[in-house]
Amino acid sequence: xxxPTPGPSRRRLPVLRYAxxxxxxxxxALLVLVWAFGRAEMxxxxxxxxxxxxxxxxxxxxxxxxxxxxxxxxxxxxxGFTHCPDVCPTTLYELAGYQKALKEKGEDLGIVFVTVxxxxxxxxxxxxxxxALSPDITAVTGKPDDVAAMLKGYGAYSRKVPQGDDYTMDHxxxxxxxxxxxxxxxTIAYGENPDTARGKLERLVTL
Length: 207
Hints:
By secondary structure, the protein is an alpha+beta fold. It is built from five helices and nine strands, in the order αβββαβαβαββββα.
């Protein structure tokens, strides 16, 4: 005669089934939250006003440059100077490499390099400096007061530091990321993990 009382294995089946359904529901809920957060983040960016203020400077070819240069394509904006011993050349070299890799994938990334040392960084000097890295870097300079106003309008810091009979410049080392409408998206810190930096730029060009 068969014992009608469920064994331990049979009693565990409904419990396991409920646990599995609970796990599936939890994963779906998490995916919904991630999707909603992503949409909210995108909406926040799309609703923001263009970053910074208006300015009128010149590029490495002596041509006029205004804020429009930062509002036509995804852009990595960096402040530095040509006499910088390590931070500036390293940052621009890395950005140029990312730019080239994205271009090979059919993506567009602009790089705008604004000097914090306009007294020494003339258009001619900037042209030689960035020309050695990429043909698609816009280098910007101008009258010292106009450059200082531009830096202030974009939240960049710079300070002349005496160094014997010469001087160097202390300045903001982070790269500012702007979407194709000129809206602030984020930053890349100096020395940031290359994979993280690359991921930020890959996301930037899709916005």
